[in-house]
Amino acid sequence: MSDSGLPMKSIAKSATGISGFDDLTLGGLPTGRPTLVCGTAGCGKTLFAATFLVHGARELDEPGVFVSFEERPSDIVDNVASLGFDLDTLINAGKVVIEHIEVDPSEVAEIGDYDLEGLFLRLELAIDSIGAKRVVLDTIESLFSAFTNQAVLRAEIRRLFDWLKDRGLTTVITGERGDGALTRQGLEEYVSDCVLLLDHRVHNQISTRRLRIVKYRGSSHGTNEYPFLIDQGGFSVLPVTSLGLTHRVFNERVSSGVPDLDGMLSGGGFHRGSSILISGVAGSGKSSLAASFVDAACKAGQRALYFSFEESQEQMVRNMRSLGIDLGTHFAAGQLKYVAARPTFYSLEMHLALMLRDVIAFRPDIFVLDPLSAFAETGDRSEVHAMLLRIVDFLKSEGVTGVLTHLTQSGKTVIETDSGLSSLMDAWILLLNRESNGEFNRELYLLKARGLSHSNQVREFVMDNDGIHLLLPYTGQGSALTGAARRVAEAEESRLERQREMEAEKAQQMIEQRRRRTMAQIEILRSELEADEAELRGAILMEADRRAQIETQEDEMRKSRGSI
């Protein structure tokens, strides 16, 4: 939409079938216009053009003509077969025509009105024979090698481009890069509607191919360099630098496979689509924790993609079995894909391109890169940082949870080593090995978890046959103790607690005994009191009897005296 709110009118575009490139250009190459693809030898110009031509003929019912000025048709057929293209079938079906025009400058005499009229006639015949919509001219330098007059050369180049454009042919013209210019003649880029520059550079003995859109009339486009691949999967471009912060966010939780670690986060586990950094010194358990993430995801019926730059698949399976993690079953179920390679095998861009392409093809729920620090030898800090940024943005855009391990060099502080990486991550788990009392003990710190309240307490990181466990350290006496020191401190605390319990039990027994003695004394007193009361009652009765006897005797005495 335009700023006025009205739909923006865009030029028609023809899809090339090149993965990533059509997304990058919002549709492909300009329809009915010439596109110049220039670059040095071996950068992939011909394969780019062949992919464009084959895709049109095979997928879009747009026949094409391939005009080669250097390679013979049989060589072209064989070369593109490496990309999985069967040109012979398309040629037999009348969807592709290959014209081989050999121009020998020694046999050409540029005199008078010498022009390209002969080429136009031959090209028009081939186009009309199959109703071609697409044309490839490979490469244009061979065609103009016979021209020495710059004025004639300029006029003929413009006439060729206008001829193609007037017939509405979507054309790819390849050209060799010149000295200080995009092409040898330095003219083609000015009359082309779209100009692509392919680059094949070598740094530290590692080669990288990159593509840049130099010019695209009538269409917006990115200006960055984009890595591209040429392999058995075809020609693919990765528009990774154009990604923005517009990815989806998820409330769904992802388990780490370690219940104790999930329990350190409110709600349990990390958010899906989060980028999680596991950093630590050598032997601190980074790969094991990453494998635990993978194991939990696969057990939940999800898929995981693991890129390792230090261990082979078999070695990883064996090592994780010692922790009770059976990765072999996940491989057998097709839920886990493991890619192992040395970091120096490709350039950073190539590694990035391969990883992102595998993510697109395998569609994992969790992605592991182990370790990111392995790329320190293939690029400087800024390049590794840029690569990490691209990976994180891409995974977020795909809703994939990323787990990246990073080796922290001993002798450096954590902040110095990881500040550039941790700022890009949503969560940061730090693993440390601390020497104490003649032994190393692993510790885990959950330093960061965006959007989640979490424990800030250190945990002792313990790995055994039953998996990974996090133990609370001994925090008495103003310090946190782990390992043997923790066990000694806990045993001492247990002993003191038992002692306190015994003292309390002894005091309770003494009180009970005193209570019993008191109750016995009370019982004795009560018995004495009852005896006294009984004696008193007897005395009262005796006194009553005595009084009654006295009264009786007095009555008898009065009767005997006759006084009554």
What's the quick description here?
This protein has helices at residues 21-24, 45-59, 73-81, 87-92, 117-130, 140-144, 150-166, 188-191, 259-262, 286-299, 313-321, 327-332, 348-362, 381-398, 414-422, 483-560, and strands at 13-14, 29-30, 34-39, 64-68, 96-100, 134-138, 170-176, 194-203, 206-216, 225-231, 234-237, 253-254, 270-271, 275-280, 304-308, 336-340, 366-370, 401-407, 427-436, 439-449, 459-464, 467-471. The protein is 40% helix and 23% strand. It is of the alpha/beta class and 564 residues long.
Defining traits:
about 575 residues; nine-stranded mixed beta sheet; 16 helices; 22 strands
Explain the overall architecture.
The chain has 564 residues and is an alpha/beta fold. It is built from 16 helices and 22 strands. It has helices at residues 21-24, 45-59, 73-81, 87-92, 117-130, 140-144, 150-166, 188-191, 259-262, 286-299, 313-321, 327-332, 348-362, 381-398, 414-422, 483-560, and strands at residues 13-14, 29-30, 34-39, 64-68, 96-100, 134-138, 170-176, 194-203, 206-216, 225-231, 234-237, 253-254, 270-271, 275-280, 304-308, 336-340, 366-370, 401-407, 427-436, 439-449, 459-464, 467-471. The strands form four sheets. A nine-stranded mixed beta sheet has the order 5-4-6-7-3-8-9-10-11, sandwiched between helices. A nine-stranded mixed beta sheet has the order 16-15-17-18-14-19-20-21-22, with helices on both faces. Strand 17, helix 14 (381-398) and strand 18 (401-407) form a beta-alpha-beta unit. The radius of gyration is 45 Å and the shape is rod-shaped.
